[in-house]
Amino acid sequence: MRFALDRESGTPLYQQIEAYFRAGILSGSFLPEARLPASRQLARDLGVNRMTVETAYANLESDGLVYFKVGSGTYVLPPPVLALPVKDNAQALFPAWQQTLQLPLSFSDETLAAPAGADLIRFAVGSGDPGLFPLDAMRKILQTVMRRDGVSALGYGDLYGYAPLRATISHVLANQGIQARPENILITSGSQQAIALAAQLLLREGETVLVESPTYGGALDLFRKLRLRVVGVPVDGNGMQVDGLDALFEQVRPRLIYTMPNFHNPSGVCLSNQRRHELIALAGRHNIPILEDDYVGDLRYDGHAQPALKALDPGGQVIYVSTFSKMLMPGLRTGFLVAEGPVFENLAQGKRATDLAASNLIQRAVEGYVTVGRYQAHLRRSCQLYKSRRDAMLAALRRYLPRDVQFIASRGGLFLWLQLPDGLTAEQLLPIAREQGVDFASGPGFFPNRADGANFLRLNFAAFHREQINEGVRRLGQAIGQVRK
Amino acid sequence: MRFALDRESGTPLYQQIEAYFRAGILSGSFLPEARLPASRQLARDLGVNRMTVETAYANLESDGLVYFKVGSGTYVLPPPVLALPVKDNAQALFPAWQQTLQLPLSFSDETLAAPAGADLIRFAVGSGDPGLFPLDAMRKILQTVMRRDGVSALGYGDLYGYAPLRATISHVLANQGIQARPENILITSGSQQAIALAAQLLLREGETVLVESPTYGGALDLFRKLRLRVVGVPVDGNGMQVDGLDALFEQVRPRLIYTMPNFHNPSGVCLSNQRRHELIALAGRHNIPILEDDYVGDLRYDGHAQPALKALDPGGQVIYVSTFSKMLMPGLRTGFLVAEGPVFENLAQGKRATDLAASNLIQRAVEGYVTVGRYQAHLRRSCQLYKSRRDAMLAALRRYLPRDVQFIASRGGLFLWLQLPDGLTAEQLLPIAREQGVDFASGPGFFPNRADGANFLRLNFAAFHREQINEGVRRLGQAIGQVRK
Q1: Contact between chains at B45 and A189 (C-beta distance less than 8 A)
Q2: Minimal Cβ distance to B45: which of A218, A304, A355
Q3: For A106-145, how does the pLDDT look when each residue is reduced to its tens digit (9 = 90+)?
């Protein structure tokens, strides 16, 4: 053990040692029944006489903070009932450089910080149903990986990502119409990190990123934190409105287009085939990279699949980003990006500078799971179940909500997107809804211009049983009725 | 399956489908024996007539790319010997925005990219001995966590990090003289991410960060990538030279001081007690935050422990960063930071924007391992072993290297730092050393001004057996002899 002694101060060393343990015990840093270091060892560590340490321990004992066990050592007693106040963050006077730090309103706070309540139906969540996740299979695969790979499962591993996982992703993507070579795939800590790497590489402070309006709140948080200018393009039932883009490009000179062409978050719409071709052509003409976020591209319940923008890429124009978070489990933190050309190596180096590499063990486990064909089966099962839940939510919305609340039936993904009538805002509704035992993701967090989202809210249908969906939407209907009274 | 069909082009749809699979099979995206989608399903996915798909498949078969199995489906044949050339990254013409991307020389490339060779002794590595890691214990703990926590082990979890792990770290730190409340601890993806978060928050492009010269190459990479101005302060046997700092602060106005006071990487020296107090006082007076990187603080083999800068922090001045990568395994990617005041919440939000959260499963496993007291035992074992290896390397250096190669005996950590005599550079030596079967981390990658490092090199003693150490240093001695001939 080491801690600071001040040999120049007037305070005797034994008192300094005593004070250190006293503060630690009272603040809870040293737990009851924790053993203090042997006096001989501590004396050596601190470079003091052993008697000095023993005097300090004796004083702590007489104050009822520790006790001696003969032949064993010195142990912490449970804290006295009247513990001393611990230094409080809020009251401390922090250095001047800390006073200038400002904290922007964060999407995740708004979306996730519901008050704890046993019965709250949390339609605000952003992931699929964890109950679907094949825990047992994953547990066994983890065991297999640990036995098979030993310490190599826990080293840094390949800085681009575990090579067999990159090959596996290449095959998964081939099934989705994207021909990506493993050398062009970089494993990231979720798709969030992939978006962060691209934005950090391609834009500098004050430059413009073009997004759909609305868009994923976590991306907005990120872009704002990087002090970028965020310009929104309106979305309709066919996705991003591509019509005015030519003029807009000239006007705002974006350095990046961030888009979710499939089951767009939060609206659930898909970009039409024609617009996909137009967007690619326009971006090429204006020399603007496209960041395609395909976070749930495979969770389709109706209609025909559209080609990914990446599949239309004439070469090096599109950075494609996806993740296993929505399909499997978010805690795996395993996403990836696909890019060709100099940008790929730049992104890989950015990854290294940010956190060196992704967890090697988890990558190996994901690879094991996907390779044995369980992934495709899991996906089919998820689609079947989520489709029925979407239908249940649509039925409940028609049953319990007033006619003037609008919504589109998403053809895939996790969410339904609702528009409240004029005069009724999500902000008004949320506290009442929570009282009724249901929550939702409020519109403003999804819009570059927050005010545009006042009337909107997002509901997750994928993570809930039909009964919960029915009950949750019923409560939402009640809450709307109550606000209108 | 979905991929792009162009209905406006002159090419018939069946030929487009055929071309898609042909390219995929020849490039290896579709593996031999992979099953193509059933024609009925693919026709539905693509919105075409089933006959169109079957025509495409028949053409692929007559070209020897696939075969039919009656009652089963269409399968990919092994690729023909003369595969078509695949689109090559180097030759493709990438968009203009890609041409402007420049790739800086990266520390990790220089340090880690040794040519593969069975017999190469890789003194360049940056971690401890993976053979020490208690694999079986960790495997069992992973099982326990999966069984005990189920899906909650694989969800996003607490965005600040798994709460019991933060409490455990608080106790570990109390033993190192740092009293940190769990609420002031943020779990990160290794210490690299903690450094990245602090730098991104506290500095803007062009602003100045002060580092030791030499310093950790991964931090230099990061700071350069963020386009910061990096100013180095010389290091001697007592660590960073604090004397001239007052004037230097006035001159370059740094926004952050990045320092490794314990077993500094690469030099292995410790900042003296007196300089610790001076540095804290100076930084406080000039209102400059300190980022303390305590990457191997507990791996001490001789001498007395010095207090961490964090332990001397008058309040909110020091951001403390550490990791389990060096003590346990780097692949765990589990580091943490400690900070008080507004900066803490800002760093936490930065973490969220970058990658949402650290792997929940791994955090739970680390917590399980540390809590049951195995961590302290592991640390004692590591110190004992590494000390004997350091001594073995010192003996070998005295035996095999010419007298004019200088080095300091580090009192802890993983590395020894060598200075070659004038006229002999690490750059000259490295290729010859590799031919002899040994490598090292070259000096220039550790210096803000690369030229300052021409005569230096870093050797890792911790990851090698005594015989390897002896043999490796012997080879190094031979290489030096050879260069001098």
Answers
A1: no
A2: A304
A3: 665 555 555 556 689 999 998 889 888 888 888 899 999 9
